[in-house]
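Problem: given the chain below (127 residues), write out its structure.
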Amino acid sequence: MFFMLSINDKIDEIYTDENIRVCKACGKYGRYSLLMKYRRFSLFFIPIFKFHREYFVKSSCCDTYFTIDEEVAYDIDSGRKTFINDEDIDILDYGYEANKDYLKTCGSCGYQTYEDFQYCPKCGDRL
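Solution.
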C-alpha cells in the first residue's frame, strides 16, 4: 500500500481591518491585515489538520510586519473582536517605506515619521 503524506507551511490572510488609520511604522494612512502562518498535515493532497499557528499583522501602506498578542489575534479570528489596536501590536520587521534613512520627530508630542511633512500629522505643530 502506498501513502502520500506531506507537511507544509502556509500563510493565510484571515482578517483585514476596515478602518483606515495612521500606520505605527511609517506614519502613512493604511489598513492592518491579520495573517496566520501555520503548518498543515495532508494525506493524498487533502488537508487533514493545522498545527503550530502564529499570528502576524501586516500594514497595507509600507508592508511592515507586526507581532500581535495571541489572545487578541484569536479573538479577531473567532469574530469576538473586530478591531486591531496600536497597543496590541509591536514592530517585527520594517517594510520598504519604513526603511528610509531619515526619521523626523515632532518636538511637541514626540511623534516619529518618515514622511516629508512640514507639520506633525498627530498634533499639527511644525516639524
